[in-house]
Amino acid sequence: MTQQPDEPSIEARAKTPWTANSPGSPILPEDLLLLLFQPESGVIAGENTLFYVLAGAVLADLALHESVAITTTRAGSINVEAVREKAPPSDEILLSAWEYVSDKPRGVQTVLPAIGPRLRHPLLERLIARGDIRRGNRKVLGFFKMTVLKDSQNGRRAGLLKEVRDVLVDGTEPTARIAALAALIGASGALPQFDPQIPWTSAVINRAQELKRGNWGAGATSEAVTRTMTAVIVNSVISTAAVASSHQ
């Protein structure tokens, strides 16, 4: 099948790529999908706008590694473009998005729906292959078998959730990665579903709002550009998802 000009490619072509953290480590959208998975019900929270949020996580991961830059046009719209001085990412999902914006700067709200729809399946398969989520069977009406998702109880989701909770509830100063995760969960609209593990209180809501604006804490001053870029991406996710929801 011939690839369309505006369709992100999926093949890695980098000779000297960087890895997201260390070889084989989860990328940010994997961690986000794992957190949005609700073990009690076996569903993914925020399915209606999930692909925008996952696409935002892809861009945020690239932003955290300074592989994309955010620019403002004369008309005031926000563009994202690849930083060509950096080696392309080795991860094929991140590479696909990076290549999509390497051809030319593209509006963030154009990129999100372009790269988002195809993310859920491969990211979920990675989580299953990694052993973070497992597939199981459940009987419906006593004899029909239905495939369901279950928590593997390997502790990785619980560990991520604790880090996010520490930031939102206890006010712990986050790492850039955890700040981005917490902000994206807030952007997904799924934060109330984490109650009571993360209580749905005014203090938590306010803290989530601060993270979405890029207010990560005094120790993050050296990451000012990254914070700004991540905040732009997160708020683009919110506005794009809101527009999409209004048309449903």
Describe this structure in words.
- By secondary structure, the chain is α+β, with helices and mostly antiparallel strands.
- Mean pLDDT is 84; it is low at 1-23.
- Helix 6 crosses helix 7, helix 7 packs across helix 8 and helix 7 (176-188) packs parallel to helix 9 (224-246).
- The longest helix has 23 residues, at 224-246.
- The protein has helices at 28-36, 50-64, 92-102, 108-115, 120-130, 156-168, 176-188, 202-212, 224-246, and strands spanning 37-38, 43-44, 68-72, 78-82, 106-107, 133-140, 144-151.
- The chain has a 3-stranded antiparallel sheet.
E-strand count: 7
Strand content: 5-15%
Assembly type: single chain
Mean pLDDT value: 84
Could you say which structural class the secondary elements and strand pairing correspond to? alpha+beta
Shape: globular
Rounded radius of gyration (Å): 18 Å
InterPro entries: GPP34-like (IPR008628), GPP34-like_sf (IPR038261)
Pfam family, one: GPP34
Membrane topology: Peripheral membrane protein
Keywords: Golgi apparatus, Lipid-binding, Membrane
Question: Short description, anyone?
Answer:
It is found in: Golgi apparatus membrane. Residues 1-23 are annotated as: Disordered. With 248 residues, the protein is an alpha+beta fold.
